[in-house]
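User: My collaborator sent over this chain with a note saying "see what the structure looks like." That's all I know about it. Can you take a look?
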Amino acid sequence: MNKIKIGIVGIGNCASSLLQGIEYYRTKNTKEAIGLMHWEIGGYKPYDIEVVAAFDIDKRKVGKDVSEAIFELPNCTTVFCTNVPKANVKVRMGKILDGFSNHMKNYDEKYTFVLSDEKEASKEDVINVLKESGAEILLNYPPVGSEEGTRFYAECALDAGVAFINNMPVFIASNPEWAERFKEKGIPIIGDDIKAQLGATITHRTLADLFKKRGVKLERTYQLNTGGNTDFLNMLDRSRLASKKTSKTEAVQAVLNEKLDAENIHIGPSDWVAWQKDNKVCFIRMEGKLFGGVPMNLELRLSVEDSPNSAGVVIDAIRCCKLALDRGIGGILYSPSAYFMKHPPQQFTDDEAYRMTEEFIAGKRAD
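Assistant: Without extra context I'll predict from the sequence alone. Here is the result:
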């Protein structure tokens, strides 16, 4: 098979886990392929993905080979593959815009960004790099709250004729105007806001769906999350959380028979705990009524390494996007978006989204 050539915006923990995973699975076979939803998608294995372009704004990463940059501070995710080979792809200076929250200037450098003093990339710079590198798909991984930054790179993808996977809670695929632009150009897009392999949102959705199927009336619920990576530090600026809270909340509300009133549902990041590093701890509480109106409640604590949890889904999103390119399918990929993302253009139950995605992979639906 030909390589799937990708560009990455933001060489943080998520990119680190993805690149480690690509190499990790190179030496595995189907029996050893622990942690994958699919070993093969349309003939493409995990190690058929190749990074050909990379952008960041941290001076410890800009100018370095991407294989080295993924292990630089402030990255703090688990290192499960130490032998990532040199990619011969230099990390380019990106566009800062709102990709850096001002409050992060006051923290120890090991926890936060150190802005590069290189000249910021222009739109033309990014487009040229994408075209010259042969990138087919651009992954969007800037910090939460990067509304301007995400729109900037979405524009670059459109102008470069490159497919776009929006892993962040900025509404591009789920915005009709943006979706129409990708459709008009025949460019595939998957989004918005990556749903972890087995994280807080997918667990909360599954439990909410279970309540519904078992006839339990859900009356109120919360989901609180703590972590120690750069993104949790970034999210201490609550002004950057509007779309994140919307994305996570709607993901749970979408599987209920009736949406809960705003006062009865609270979902979102809670706090940054430095020593947790890339470990994310989630607390879920659900209160409801059983047979006869008898009350019950459920409490759950989930602890996961945040970035490998993301990479386990992105590695499939990339391959589904490549299938669309191979098949000449443009615009929103509804099935993969519904299965892989928290805030897709159209919500389905996870069972429905799984079935639709399997049909898409098998070529039984064109989306």
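A starting point for your reply to your collaborator: The longest strand covers residues 217-227.
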